[in-house]
Every structure is written in structure tokens, then in C-alpha cells.
């Protein structure tokens, strides 16, 4: 899995015991321990240490704060004669609660493990146990096992198979002077090859990405290593792009006898024909009515639905080329990224235009946040109004589409920053800064508010609003949303003003369903259809215990609060507020987001408009995409099933047309790491 994905999954490790240990109960780091730091371009976020205990075991200790989400864990690892881990124990807590995890191999050769979300046993044999969580540096044990296994790789517990390939060497200069490090890629634990850096003798050196794990003193080397691994990844994905963007895929194609989604009219049209030629929708008519030239490819659409390619309006791009490919496999042909690094976004645009990257087409915003320990990891950080305006100017000069303000921003800087952005033609959106309510942000210049929890801030106690750059932005709505009267005069007036101002809302309901409704007993509905076709380690990471309970609240309380947040989306829609579908994840979650809108009261057609024509209008691309009409760019998705009757049919992607190039859905899924079609 990618370094960032590994870190995210590690943050979801929760309880195998009744209650987590407090920070003070964890191991104390001795003098002379190996020291790694966790950092991003915005700030340092934490530390990880490692040392050897008197009995030969290896200890790890991790301390991290990501925008107020706290992790304090330790781990002790016992290795066998062959170097593989035969026992480990994780203690402490993450932002998702108790991080306890135990693994051991008995004298009978049976391995046993227990976490918050699973437990099991199996013959150990020649396998390696892949931890669910724990201090990030402990992943070096897995890297060592992969190196020792060589090209054949190693089988994993609870399931899967992984391997490592070691590539180019690079000279760096660190605290000890010049030295050599090696770029390697692991495969099997995630959907795609994941980069990791090794020492000259093939031991773990660093993991580099939007958040990097580096040996202390080497932090300045991270950008150099990141650039090298991104080029290596780009070289790998180029061949895949060239294979799919073939001349054969550009042949004229007739989709005949399909059910067609008219996104502009918000209706489904039975028995239609759509001709694609020269990258455009050439004609639309009744089924069987279009005359086409000889050599035109014909696709029988009976029992299938043809739609404009889908949009994810909350998809952070950059650093994951393979993820962009997978988004295509889920029917996504466009996205809006509400926060990317400028250099990574420019690289995506450049390589996509050259045909060297297979990816949806998108628009990108850049985050601006106040310089603060709680600042967003990939933000341009500022310390004054003048720096805020300068950051906006930098975003415009870089060719980006919008500005996203974040939770630690000084509220006084929002209006002047938004005014400058609007002067330059940039879209303004974001989280609501601590101390402001959403209506304050909109009146200060927001065109859009991201995440439904920040919309719910309108009804939160002032004590929650004042700390919205901390965990209070989750815990406040989790605690109080269940008691909010969505139909009170104040809330109705709120909806009406948002509608009058033309404010857009990007709810990302699927995020809060996972956090509030999950209890560790089952995979959340967003991921369940993909479990059987995904790498076991990925599927295991999808099963989370949910946001930790607090203050005497129950999981049922959290679920009631989530239901109110979903109901809020329905009220906004009824009031005329535009909704755009976003996941803050990937294409895998997008259909679930749309399904949740239907559950909130939108019709299937209305829910689909949030992922087609409405985002296209938001970013100014509705003249080219977002609907199926003659003259428009042919960005289409053909799915097996009747979407008018069941939105879940959207997961059954049969064909994708991107910029007029026809691609097979099964081939896209295989290339992006899936082993088949999702369940219905």
C-alpha cells in the first residue's frame, strides 16, 4: 500500500482490550534511541523511536498530533531465529481509540492475533503477520521480511501475498555526510506498488509522501526522495496509459438501445442510441434510429444504463497515480480536488495532457491555513492578512482553480482573502475556521462549504464552534446533532440564505457514516461490495471500529447524530441549495455517497445530478461535460443494470469513455488492482 495509505490505516487501529493505556503508562524512550520524525511541508507532526530491550526484543514508541488528532502508542516485537516476527504487542491509543493489538506464535506453530476489528488463528508456517496498526516505524519488520524472502515474496496473515523489488540507488547528504539509499516498491499489501526507501544494506530507511517518516536530521532530504519516487511511479503508469489510450479505443462507437440518463432534465430516457466519434458525442436518438458508417463499433445496451461520466467533488489528488486509474475503473471521468500540492497537481495536468497518465480530468484547489501546529498538512501556511493575499496570488499564478481556507485560519483574514480570490476568478470554499459558523464564512465570501459537519456547526454550541480546528469538529456534531431541530425557524432561515446566495455544499456523508455508524463488527456499506475483489490487507483496513465514544454517549447516539446530518442534506436540497457529491476518499466510496443522498430524500435522478451536471456547472465545465448531448466531450460510463431503479447498479461498470476513448471496465479494474467486479 502507499505510504500515506499505510499511515491512514495505522491510525484506525483500535481496541482489543477494554480501555487504552494513558500516555503516561506507555514506555519511556531511553537516551540514544533511534529517532524518526513525522512531518509534512506544513510542519512537524510527531516522532517515532526504536531501541533494543535487554532481552533482545525491539521496542517502538510513537507520539503524533495531526491537526489535533492524537496518537500515543508503543509496541514490543519479538523475532524468531529466521528474523520473522513471532510475537508483538501494541498498546496505547490513536485518534480512533484503543490501539491494542496482540500477535503471537505458539509452540504448536499456530499464529494467533486480536485487534478491535478481528481475531483469528492459523498455521504460521513460512508466513508473516501483517499488523493492523501500531507505531509506523515497526513496519520496518515487514520490509525486512520481504527483503529476506527475495523475488518469491511471502504469504501474509491474515491473508494475501507480498513482495518487494529493489531499484535505483541515490546519493544523499545527511547528518553523517554522503550516503547511498535505494528506492524499492512493495506489492501485495495494497492495490498498487508502494514506494519505500532502503539503506545501502537493504534495511528500512524512510517512507516519503505528503506525510513522511524520516530519520531525525534527514527531513530536508524528503523532497528530493519524493521527486525521485514520483518519477519512478510515473514511468510505471505511462505504459498503462499508452495501452488504454490506444487508436482502437478511438474508433467511432454506437451505444444502442440503452437507458440514458438526461442529467440536465433530471430524468431517465428509455431505449436511446448514442454515437461517439472524434472524441465527441456525435448524435443522440431513439434506439435503432442512428445510421452509422461501416466499421463503427456497436455496443448493445439492452439492460444497461448510459450516463455522463461521474464526478467526485472531494477527491484529493497527488502522489497516487494508481489511484487515479482506479477512479476511472469506478466510472469517474472528472473530479474536483479540494486541496492538492501545486507541484503534484501541475504534474498530473501535464502528464495527462501528454497521454502519459490515465486519469480523470479535474480542477484543483489549494489549501491556505494559518501557521499553527494544527495547520493542514499540505497547506500554504500564512501568518498575516498580507501573506493570505500573497498565497491566493500564488495559487492563481500556478494555474489552479480555487482556494480552500482551513480550520486554523484567522477569521479576520477570510474576507480579504476571498475578495482577492474572487478578483482573480478563483472559487472560494473550505472548512469553517474555528470561531466562525458556516453562515459567517459564506457572508465573508465562501462560495461553498465542505463537509456536512461544518454545515451542522450553525446549530452547535459556541464552545464547539470556538474549537472547530480540533477534534471538536467531529465530536461536537457527534454529541449534539441528534438533538438539533432541522425544521426550526433559525435552521430554515439558514437554508434559505444559503440558497439565496447560491452557496454550494459538499457533504461527504460517507466519511461520517464510517466514523459514527461503524462499530468494528462489519465493513461499512461503502466498501462492502469491494471486499471480495480487493487485497486482503486493504479489505481488513476498511473494517474500522468507528470514532471512539466519549462523555457517556453510545454508538446509537452517534448513529442518531449521523441520521440528522444526512437529514440536513435533504433539507438543504429541498431549500434549493446545490449539493455536489464528494467522498474525501476515492471512487470506491462515490456510489455510497450518492445512495446516502437518496436516503436523505433525493430521487435517484436528483442524486445523480450531484455527481454529473451540478459539479460540471460548479467548475465551469458544463459546456463540455456533465451531460450527454451532441457536440460535448464523450466522457461516459455504461453500467450493467437499471440505475433508475437502483443506484447500486452504478458499481457495475461495463465500459468507460474518457475524452472519446473507449475502455473496458473489467480491464480497468484489473489494471487498478481489483480481482473482479464488485458484488451487486
Short summary:
The chain is built from 19 helices and 33 strands. With 680 residues, the protein is of the alpha/beta class. Residues 1-18 have low confidence and may be disordered.
Please give a structural write-up.
With 680 residues, this protein is an alpha/beta fold. The chain has 2 domains: 3-228, no CATH class; 366-624, Alpha-Beta Barrel (TIM Barrel). Helices cover 28% and strands 29% of the residues. It has 19 helices and 33 strands. Strands 1, 2, 3, 4, 5, 6, 7, 8, 9 and 16 form a 10-stranded antiparallel β-sheet that branches. Strands 22, 23, 24, 25, 26, 27, 28, 29 and 30 form a 9-stranded parallel β-sheet that branches. Residues 1-18 have low confidence and may be disordered.
Which terms summarize this structure?
680 residues; alpha/beta; TIM Barrel; nine-stranded parallel sheet; disordered N terminus
Question: Poorly predicted ranges (pLDDT <50, ≥5 residues)?
Answer: 1-18
β-strand number: 33
> How many structural domains does the protein architecture include?
2
Assembly classification? single chain
Count of separate DSSP helical elements: 19
- How is the biggest beta sheet arranged? 10 strands, antiparallel
* SSE-based structural type: alpha/beta
CATH architecture annotation of the largest domain: Alpha-Beta Barrel
Amount of beta strand: 25-35%
Q: Please, what is the average pLDDT?
A: 94
CATH topology of the largest domain: TIM Barrel
**CA-based gyration radius:** 25 Å
What is the 3D form? globular
- As a percent range, the share of helical residues equals 25-40%
Distance between the termini: 26 Å
Q: How would you name the CATH homologous superfamily of the largest domain?
A: Metal-dependent hydrolases
Amino acid at each position: 500500500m502507499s505510504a500515506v495509505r499505510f499511515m491512514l490505516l495505522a491510525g484506525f487501529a483500535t481496541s482489543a482490550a477494554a480501555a487504552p493505556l494513558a500516555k503516561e503508562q506507555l514506555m519511556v524512550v531511553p537516551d540514544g534511541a533511534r529517532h524518526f520524525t513525522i512531518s509534512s511541508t506544513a510542519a512537524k507532526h510527531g516522532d517515532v523511536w526504536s531501541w533494543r530491550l535487554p532481552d533482545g526484543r525491539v521496542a517502538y514508541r510513537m507520539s503524533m498530533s495531526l491537526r489535533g488528532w492524537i496518537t500515543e502508542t508503543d509496541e514490543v516485537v519479538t523475532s524468531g531465529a529466521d528474523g520473522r516476527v513471532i510475537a508483538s504487542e501494541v498498546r496505547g491509543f490513536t485518534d480512533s481509540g484503543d490501539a491494542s493489538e496482540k500477535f503471537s506464535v505458539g509452540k504448536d506453530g499456530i499464529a494467533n492475533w486480536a485487534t478491535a476489528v478481528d481475531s483469528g488463528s492459523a498455521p504460521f508456517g513460512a508466513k508473516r503477520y501483517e499488523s493492523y496498526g501500531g507505531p509506523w516505524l515497526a513496519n520496518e519488520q515487514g520490509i525486512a521480511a520481504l527483503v529476506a524472502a527475495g523475488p518469491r515474496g511471502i504469504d501474509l496473515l491474515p491473508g494475501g501475498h507480498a513482495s518487494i523489488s529493489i531499484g535505483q540507488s541515490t546519493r544523499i547528504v545527511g547528518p553523517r555526510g554522503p550516503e547511498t539509499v535505494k528506492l524499492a516498491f512493495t506489492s501485495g499489501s495494497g492495490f498498487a506498488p508502494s514506494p519505500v526507501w532502503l539503506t545501502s544494506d537493504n534495511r528500512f530507511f524512510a517512507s516519503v509522501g505528503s506525510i513522511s517518516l524520516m530519520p531525525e536530521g534527514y527531513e530536508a532530504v524528503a523532497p528530493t526522495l519524493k521527486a525521485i519516487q514520483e518519477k519512478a511511479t510515473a514511468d510505471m503508469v505511462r505504459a498503462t496509459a499508452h495501452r488504454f489510450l490506444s487508436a482502437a479505443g478511438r474508433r467511432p462507437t454506437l451505444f444502442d438501445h440503452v437507458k440514458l440518463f438526461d442529467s440536465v432534465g433530471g430524468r431517465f430516457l428509455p431505449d436511446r442510441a448514442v454515437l461517439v466519434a472524434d472524441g465527441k458525442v456525435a448524435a443522440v436518438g431513439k434506439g435503432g434510429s442512428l445510421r452509422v458508417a461501416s466499421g463503427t463499433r456497436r455496443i448493445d445496451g439492452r439492460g444497461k444504463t448510459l450516463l455522463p461520466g461521474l464526478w467526485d467533488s472531494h477527491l484529493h489528488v497527488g502522489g497516487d497515480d494508481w489511484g487515479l486509474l482506479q477512479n476511472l475503473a469506478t466510472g469517474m471521468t472528472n473530479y474536483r480536488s479540494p486541496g492538492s500540492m501545486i507541484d503534484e497537481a501541475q504534474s498530473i495536468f501535464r502528464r495527462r495532457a501528454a497521454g502519459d497518465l490515465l486519469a480523470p480530468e479535474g480542477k484543483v484547489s489549494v489549501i491556505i491555513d494559518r501557521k499553527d501546529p494544527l495547520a493542514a498538512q499540505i497547506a500554504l501556511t500564512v501568518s498575516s492578512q498580507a501573506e493570505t493575499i500573497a498565497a491566493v496570488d500564488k495559487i492563481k499564478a500556478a494555474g489552479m482553480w480555487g482556494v480552500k481556507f482551513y480550520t486554523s485560519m484567522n477569521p479576520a483574514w477570510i474576507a480579504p482573502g476571498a475578495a482577492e480570490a474572487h478578483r482573480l476568478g478563483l472559487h472560494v470554499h473550505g472548512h469553517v475556521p474555528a470561531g466562525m459558523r458556516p453562515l459567517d464564512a459564506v457572508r465573508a465570501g465562501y462560495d461553498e462549504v465542505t463537509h456536512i459537519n461544518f454545515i451542522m456547526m450553525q446549530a452547535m454550541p459556541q464552545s464547539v464552534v470556538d474549537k472547530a480546528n480540533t477534534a471538536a469538529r467531529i465530536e461536537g456534531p457527534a454529541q449534539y446533532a441528534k438533538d438539533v431541530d432541522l425544521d426550526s425557524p433559525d435552521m430554515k432561515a439558514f437554508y434559505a440564505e444559503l440558497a439565496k446566495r447560491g452557496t454550494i455544499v459538499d457533504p461527504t456523508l460517507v466519511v461520517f457514516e464510517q466514523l459514527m455508524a461503524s462499530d468494528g463488527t462489519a465493513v461499512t456499506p461503502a466498501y462492502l461490495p469491494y471486499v471480495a475483489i480487493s487485497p486482503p490487507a486493504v479489505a481488513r483496513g476498511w473494517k474500522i471500529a468507528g470514532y471512539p465514544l466519549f462523555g457517556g454517549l453510545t454508538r446509537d447516539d452517534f448513529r442518531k447524530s449521523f441520521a440528522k446530518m444526512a437529514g440536513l442534506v435533504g433539507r438543504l436540497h429541498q431549500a434549493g441549495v446545490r449539493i455536489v457529491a464528494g467522498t474525501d476518499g476515492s471512487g470506491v466510496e462515490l456510489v455510497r455517497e450518492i445512495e446516502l443522498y437518496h436516503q436523505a430524500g433525493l430521487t435517484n435522478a436528483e442524486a445523480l445530478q450531484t455527481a454529473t451536471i451540478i459539479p460540471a456547472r460548479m467548475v465551469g465545465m458544463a459546456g463540455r461535460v456533465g451531460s450527454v448531448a451532441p457536440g460535448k466531450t464523450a466522457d461516459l460510463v455504461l453500467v450493467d443494470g437499471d440505475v433508475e431503479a437502483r443506484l447500486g447498479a452504478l458499481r457495475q461498470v461495463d465500459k468507460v469513455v474518457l475524452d472519446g476513448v473507449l475502455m473496458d471496465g473489467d480491464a480497468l479494474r484489473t489494471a487498478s488492482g481489483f480481482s473482479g467486479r464488485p458484488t451487486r
